[in-house]
Design a protein that fits this description.
The protein is 50% helix and 0% strand.
Length: 107
């Protein structure tokens, strides 16, 4: 084979091994056994909240509360409810009773 073909193959094989936009090996954080990697405060001290935490709590639980209220007061749009209402209206227009009442005659 010619030298040009060999150098071209070598160049292509090197390009396959090159990772574009890489910054080295992936970083590994050794587990510490601490919740969220936070060290517990010394005895007699409280944990200091970060500024975004209260906003997150109010936003998350507030939106859940609003969603629950909206679901509770959601209008009933089922086909069964509509059909029952329509059937009652049509039977009343014809003069029929829509509730069953057993006859008082003895058989």
């Amino acid at each position: 084979m010619s030298a040009a073909i060999l150098s071209r193959r070598a160049c292509l094989s090197r390009l396959r091994n090159v990772r574009s936009a890489s910054h080295g090996a992936p970083q590994y954080n050794e587990p510490t056994g601490l919740l969220f990697g936070e060290k517990p405060p010394p005895p007699g001290h409280r944990r200091i909240k970060e500024p975004w935490e209260n906003l997150w709590y109010w936003g998350m639980y507030g939106s859940m509360g609003v969603g629950a209220v909206l679901l509770y007061f959601k209008p009933d749009t089922s086909i069964q409810t509509w059909a029952l209402k329509e059937a009652k209206q049509r039977m009343e227009e014809r003069g029929e009773k829509y509730k069953y009442e057993p006859s008082s005659s003895q058989a």
